[in-house]
Amino acid sequence: MAETIIRFENVTKQFDNDPPVLDNVSFEIEKGKFYTLLGPSGCGKTTILRLIAGFLEASDGKIFLNDKVINEIPANKRPVNTVFQDYALFPHLNVFENVAFGLRIKKMKKDVIQQKVVEALRFVNLAGYEKREITEMSGGQRQRVAIARAIVNEPEVILLDEPLSALDLKLRTEMQYELRDLQRRLGITFIFVTHDQEEALAMSDEIFVLNKGEIQQSGTPIDIYDEPINRFVADFIGESNIVSGKMIQDFEVEFVERRFECVDQGFNPNEVVEVIIRPEDLEITTEEKGNLRVTVDWVLFRGVHYEIGCIDEDGNEWLVHSTKKAKIGEKLGLAFDPEAIHVMRLGETEEEFDARLESYEEA
Ligand SMILES: Nc1ncnc2c1ncn2[C@@H]1O[C@H](COP(=O)(O)OP(=O)(O)O)[C@@H](O)[C@H]1O
Ligand SMILES: [Mg+2]
Question: How many domains does the chain have?
Answer without folding.
Answer: 2
